[in-house]
Design a protein that fits this description.
- By secondary structure, the protein is of the alpha/beta class.
- It has 5 domains: 113 residues, MutS, DNA mismatch repair protein, domain I; 155 residues, Nucleotidyltransferase, domain 5 (2-Layer Sandwich), CATH 3.30.420; 158 residues, MutS, DNA mismatch repair protein, Chain A, domain 3 (Orthogonal Bundle), CATH 1.10.1420.10; 206 residues, P-loop containing nucleotide triphosphate hydrolases (Rossmann fold, 3-Layer(aba) Sandwich); 45 residues, no CATH class.
- It is built from 26 helices and 27 strands.
- The strands form 5 sheets. A 7-stranded mixed beta sheet has the order 13-23-24-25-21-26-27, with helices on both faces. Strands 3-4-2-1-5-6 form a 6-stranded mixed beta sheet, with helices on both faces. A 6-stranded mixed beta sheet has the order 11-10-7-8-9-12.
- It is elongated and about 130 Å long.
Length: 858
């Protein structure tokens, strides 16, 4: 008989009372979580129904089946095995779905009526703690933000649930946008436009109260706007940190920011339920203490990933990352994304790195020890929310066993990154021994399968195990005894899951069956029996196995609960080890690549001798990269504050500009830099306008994107900024382009007075040096012979007179006919221009400069 078609009805269109009692419970939970996929535990499976089943079938390629549901006919159904649920959840979260886990809260064997169920966890991309779901070398940030309408200031708070990091600040919108691009959050929490009060439920068609340029880029979740209330936030924070006052946290200075923190905590509680990890502290931070890098600059400089492929390979992070631990790798990435501004903080890092550069033996020894340390930062979080498994504790033990050797290896250092955790040495050693005495070396990650607790921890557990291990010997003895008693030499003791233990006797000996044998099963060649003695042994073994497993689980949970006392210390140890790892890695990079220690001061200087691009130097063959100098100063009339850089395409202008920006960033994270000498006055912001493309999502052309980015730079830069501009004005007509490029250059040089490298093909701008002494012309040298050019990649003073566009086109492989025609047209246009210029001179009988359009600016 043909099955009825599946009814693709939506849960929003169904009333609870129209379903069977079993499905009514499902629908009540689903109505509270309309924006999430509900995984509903039924026996050994998690089932999904209605629209969730359709989504699961589509996204995970599951078979869509149906289930009879009264008047609605066959409703959609898709299920996944409970044992494999994490694999499916990971795929859903990667696609930015939110997942609700509804578990059985009681054993179905003992349930009276319907099995009690409840939501045990809501999984979102920003609240992950499971190591299987996380990228090892990157943080998984979740943030909350909102605008305070009275002041116009934005509150901003972010956390990494997996590491316990929790920070807060407040600033104007532009700075908050820059922060979003810096942390690249997995999830952004904002207030709902319509829903004002608790609880966390979805109002139909509600919108999030955040700008579209945020909601289009990031995975956003909305919560009631009342959750951002000041009183609500304050009470939340006091409860979490068990404090009567928040003054010591900096609350009075960051009141708007802390409202975002309170909302973030509320969302974490709502999603993680009973699995909320412990936050040790919340750290306010001031954006003015760090170099500002906007989203465009981060992308153009390829700090952590390449622009084209989004890969780490080819980025600045790839070039300098010599860390050995996941904790150190995450910290280095954060440092690169957030360079410092305070000179004393930069020098503090420099001191640690410099000492490790100079002390080679210590550096190598420390690096070798770090290689044996696991990600105890994230492990501590799993300890704090009771999700750590036995293997986690074995990894923790292996890591903590390295601590004494690490402390010894760093003891001789004047700038010792581990000095503050030496006080925990004895206490941690005792705890490490406790792990060793408690957790079996062969323990698996499963906590209800047994084999976790070592022998000698519990006498009761040892008794059960002895009973279980002695079972084989008992059965052999029993079999021999029964053979002798009955005289049946072919008698065998066996076991299967259906009948349990049994005595098997062949047909030829059935007439010798003694009294007390109870028939269990008839076979073709014989029969199976049990005795009271064998049945009692079976009951004892099965009881011992159950009791052993239950007791072992309880002992492990008790140990895990006790271990929470050490979470704070382990986190502090992890933080110090991460810093030590970054210092050691950056020292190794400096030593291997002939970096120098830069001078960082309050001057306006930017001086680099034989600077090199840290990424290209590693990619190109040894010695092939051409080093170049840079000298920008703003403190004297004849010094260069503004560099106009000319030269052909492909000659290396953009590379040179990026090179110096990367040197500045490395210098201000405290690292050594790829140069023979460097002196850099602290930079507050780096801006780059290098290359552009259409933004089709916003309906903006290439030129419009370029102008918006340029406007942002001109409105935000200060005299302490470093600005890199490449081919401003190229997206429009020549007249417009030159006019815009000239006026932008003029504005930066005279109004902002920032250090700037301005690459252009508009050679008309070379004459600006006559009017503005702070502007100097530089060019990239080439060698030209018989119409062929060779890029020499060296920066020298003086402007270029030609762009060599046709020669570059030829090198790119344009057809020879096109190249020939281009040369003909170029010759004709140059001749026409000369003739026109001569005619104008004769007509006016007045002197003119031989630069087209220059009269626009005289």
């Amino acid at each position: 008989m043909k099955k009825a078609e599946i009814n693709l009805i939506n849960t929003a269109d169904i009333k609870v009372e129209d379903l069977t009692p079993a499905m009514q419970e499902y629908l009540k939970i689903k109505h509270q979580n309309q924006d999430k996929i509900l995984l509903y535990r039924l026996g050994d499976f998690y089932e999904t129904f209605f629209e969730d089943a359709v989504t699961m079938s589509k996204e995970l390629e599951l078979t869509l089946t149906g289930r009879e549901q009264g008047k609605f006919g066959r409703i959609p159904l898709a299920g996944i095995p409970a044992k494999a649920v994490n694999n499916y959840i990971e795929k859903l979260v990667q696609k930015n779905y939110k997942v609700v886990i509804c578990d059985q809260l009681e054993d179905p064997k003992f349930a009276k009526g319907l099995v009690k169920r409840g939501v045990t966890r809501i999984i979102t991309s920003g609240t992950l703690t499971e190591s299987d779901f996380l990228q090892q070398n990157s943080n998984n940030y979740i943030c909350a933000l909102f605008k305070d309408e009275k002041s116009g200031i934005w509150g901003f708070s972010y956390a990494d649930i997996s590491t316990g990091e929790f920070k807060v600040t407040q600033a104007n919108y532009e700075l908050i946008l820059a922060e979003l691009t810096r942390i690249s959050p997995a999830e952004v929490i904002g207030p709902s436009v319509k829903q004002k009060i608790m609880p966390f439920q979805i109002v139909p068609d509600e919108k999030i109260d955040l700008p579209e340029e945020i909601t289009k880029i990031y995975n956003c979740s909305k919560i009631p706007s009342s959750v951002f209330d000041a009183n609500f936030a304050e009470n939340n924070l006091k409860a979490v940190f068990q404090a009567n006052s928040l003054e010591s946290f900096g609350y009075d200075r960051y009141k708007i920011g802390f409202r975002a923190s309170g909302a973030l905590l509320a969302y974490v509680w709502e999603t993680l339920k009973d699995n909320v990890p412990k936050f040790e502290r919340i750290e306010p931070y001031e954006l003015s203490e760090y170099m500002i890098l906007d989203g465009s600059t981060r992308k153009n400089l390829e700090l952590t990933e390449t622009l084209r492929d989004k890969n780490k390979f080819g980025s600045l992070l790839w070039a300098v990352d010599k860390t050995k631990t996941n904790m150190g790798a995450r910290l280095l990435k954060n440092w690169i994304c957030q360079p410092l501004k305070r000179i004393e903080d930069i020098q503090s890092r420099q001191n640690c790195i410099t000492e490790l550069v100079e002390k080679t033996d210590e550096r190598i020894n420390i690096s070798n020890l770090l290689e044996k340390i696991y990600d105890i930062q994230r492990l501590a979080t799993r300890m704090s929310n009771s999700s750590a498994n036995p293997k986690d504790f074995l990894s923790l033990k292996a890591s903590l066993m390295m601590l004494p050797d690490l402390l010894d290896a760093t003891e001789s250092l004047e700038f010792n990154p581990l000095s503050q955790i030496g006080q925990y040495k004895d206490e941690i050693a005792e705890y490490t021994n406790l792990i060793d005495r408690t957790i079996s070396e062969n323990a698996s990650a499963l906590i209800k399968e047994g084999g976790i607790i070592k022998e000698g921890v519990s006498g009761e557990l040892d008794y059960f195990r002895e009973l279980l291990s002695g079972g084989e010997n008992w059965l052999k003895d029993f079999e021999e005894k029964e053979k002798e008693r009955t005289g049946i030499k072919s008698l065998k003791i066996g076991f299967n899951k259906v009948f349990g233990y049994f005595i098997e006797i062949s047909n030829s000996y059935l007439n010798q069956i003694p009294e007390g044998y109870i028939r269990k099963q008839t076979l073709t060649n014989g029969e199976r029996f049990i005795t009271e003695e064998l049945k009692k042994h079976e009951d004892d073994v099965l009881s011992a196995k159950f009791k052993s497993t239950e007791l072992e689980y309880k002992l492990f949970c008790d140990f895990r609960e006790y271990s929470k006392e050490f979470v704070s210390k382990i986190r502090e140890i992890a933080d110090c080890i991460a810093k030590c790892d970054v210092y050691t890695g950056l020292a190794q990079t400096a030593a291997e690549n002939n970096f120098c220690k830069p001078i960082i001061d309050e001057s306006d200087d930017f001086i680099v001798k034989n600077g090199r691009h840290p990424v290209l130097e590693k990619i190109l063959p040894l010695g092939e990269y051409v080093a170049n100098d840079l000298e920008l100063k703003c403190n004297s009339a004849d010094s260069t504050q503004f560099m106009i850089l000319t030269g052909p395409n492909m000659a290396g202008k953009s590379t040179y500009m990026r090179q110096n920006a990367l040197i500045a960033i490395l210098a201000q994270i405290g690292s050594w830099v790829p140069a023979d000498y460097a002196k850099i006055g602290v930079i507050d912001k780096i801006f780059t306008r290098v290359g552009a493309s259409d933004d089709l999502t916003l309906g903006q052309s290439t030129f419009m994107v370029e102008m918006i980015e340029t406007a942002c730079i001109l409105n935000s830069a200060t005299e302490r900024s470093f600005i890199l501009l490449d081919e401003i004005g190229r997206g429009t007509s020549t007249y417009d382009g030159v006019a815009i490029a000239w006026s932008v250059a003029e504005y930066i040089a005279t109004k902002i007075k920032a250090r700037c490298i301005f690459a252009t093909h508009y050679h008309e701008l070379n004459v600006m040096t006559k009017t503005y002494p702070q502007i100097k012309n530089y060019r990239i040298t080439i060698s030209e012979e018989n119409g062929e050019i060779e890029f020499l990649r060296k920066i020298v003073q003086g402007g270029a007179s030609k762009s060599y566009g046709i020669q570059v086109a030829k090198m790119a492989g344009l057809p020879s006919a096109v190249i020939k025609r281009s040369q003909e047209l170029m010759t004709r246009m140059q001749k026409d221009y000369s003739n026109n210029l001569a005619t104008r001179k004769k007509a006016t009988d007045a002197p003119t400069v031989e630069v087209p359009q220059l009269n626009l600016f005289n």
